[in-house]
Amino acid sequence: MGLTIPVFARLGAEFMPPLNEGTILYMPTTVPGLSIPEGTKVLQVQDRLLKEFPEVERVFGKMGKATTATDPAFTGMAEITVTFKPESQWRAGMTWDRLLDEMDARLRIPGFPNIWWMPIQTRTEMITTGVRSPVGIKVLGPDLNKIEAIGKAIESVLASVPGTRSAFAERLNEGYYLDLIVNRREAARYGLTVGDVQTLITSAIGGENVTTTVEGRERYPVNVRYKRELRDDPERLKRVLIPTATGAQIPLGQIAEIVVTKGPPSISDEGGSLAGLISVSVSGRDLRGYVEEAKRVVSQRITLPPGYSLLWTGQYEHLVRAEERMKLVVPVTLGLILLLLYLNFRSLAKSLIVLLSVPFAVIGAIWFLHLLGYNLSVAVWVGIIALAGVAAETGVIMLVYLDEAFERRVREDLMRTRQDLYEAILEGAAQRVRPVMMTVSAIIGGLLPIMWTTGTGADVMKRIAAPMIGGMVTATVLTLLVIPVLYALWRWREVKRLT
User: Fold this and answer.
1) What whole-number distance in Å separates Cα of residue 401 and Cα of residue 484?
2) Backbone angles phi and psi of 239, in degrees to 5
3) Neighbours of 307 (CB within 10 A)
């Protein structure tokens, strides 16, 4: 156990292992203001580069917002779904992580930081945390300009942290707006108020619903505005005609100035404060270890002004919540096992002897996780909790055999010396060798095929099975060797009292 504690401390931590869905979602995001033709061009380049990989079956990309009210994406946000061929058709030696690294290296387009994630998992994370990457940092404060400056500084700092695949801070004030500033003096010369001009601008450029058509049970609003070719350029907008009270029509540019200004493309808030998001993609490191180092580096290099704070979110938020819950679940589980053992044996000593099988079983689980390179996760803890139950069950059966042999010799008045005690323990333990080996062989034989499975859900099942496979090995050694020794130390006091 002393050798295992440092190994356990070196294990990384993640909320859940990546669920291999057979597809990957590539979500590069650029600064606001990308034109639709340029966005289309970049999207086609990205699709073509991804399709060149022999492991890729098909690629489908979307740039910007879909024709649905449930998609809040802006023009500079790409969502490219990459569907892979079966792993049996991949290049020799190719793994999932290696393929993602090659794709990430190939698609280094300036201004488009890469984010790779699973499609379903991405949607789930975005719904629960509002972050589309494994790690997100929310900068909270009262001023968007300072929030953006802090985000850019953190973005540059994170680039030096090992494991950072990409980091991108939202540009909160780089949206482009077309402002029409009405010249009140010129408008008054034609008998127009600012409200009159704004109303006409709204209806002619923005559009106005004038009626609704009824077609059976369907209702369609009828919107009237200028044709697109008359309003898609600032110079053309200056020629929009404004009717006056005298019946004359004057061009908009004569009574209003059209200027392009910058402003926030969207405004987010969190906990009553304005918020800006830094999306971070992590590669080659466990989630908890990366965030701990990133926190340390950011705190050393970034000084937050008064009134500003950082909130680390994304999948890391789920990890912290799960770890807090496990601090309650694991002790409660062990407590319930001890309670059930005591209700069965009516002896605290026997219950504790059986319960000692749990930490010795966990030794094998930790070493096996270390050899496989697995991180601690909810799936791993599920396997460890299941292992604790099986290990305690095996210890119970061993103790029952030892008690039967001991009590029979006591009844026959054959329990007088330490050698008599050893013979009784050897008799009981020997009867248990075959059942123990059969139990262990059945469990390990049933779980080992999981370690060679591939496809969707395999990574999660491997994390559940691995602790049980490794733990059953050391649990067997404990059951056959350590429990008899502890039983002898405990029973010898009773033998001395009887004699």
Assistant:
1) 10
2) -95, 5
3) 11
For residue 428, give the nearest of 479, 472, 474, 390 by alpha carbon.
Answer: 479
What confidence tens digit (pLDDT) does each residue in 377-389 have? Answer: 888 888 888 888 8
Report d(CA 292, CA 283) in Å as an integer: 15
Asked whether the whole model's pTM tops 0.70, one would answer yes
For the segment 24-47, the average pLDDT, to the nearest whole number, is 82
> In angstroms, how far is CA 415 from the centroid of its own chain?
60
At 457 the three-state DSSP class reads coil
Give the three-class secondary structure for 62: strand
80-90 average pLDDT score: 87
Return the number of other C-beta atoms located less than 10 Å from residue 30's C-beta: 22
Instruction: Dig out the tokens for 499 from the structure.
Output: 């004699």
pLDDT digits 0-9 by tens, 106-153? 888 887 878 887 888 777 777 777 777 788 889 999 988 899 899 889
Quick count: other Cβ atoms within 10 Å of Cβ 89? Answer: 10
User: Six-digit token pair at 267?
Assistant: 């405004």
Residue 424, pLDDT > 90, answer: no
Amino acid in position 208: E
Q: Is residue 400 within 8 Å of 482, Cβ to Cβ?
A: no
Long-range Cβ contact pairs of 36-42 (< 8 A, separation 24 or more): 36/64, 36/75, 39/63, 39/64, 39/75, 39/76, 39/78, 42/78, 42/109, 42/112
Predicted local distance difference test score (pLDDT) of residue 499 = 60
Half-sphere exposure of 302 (CA within 13 A, CB side): 24
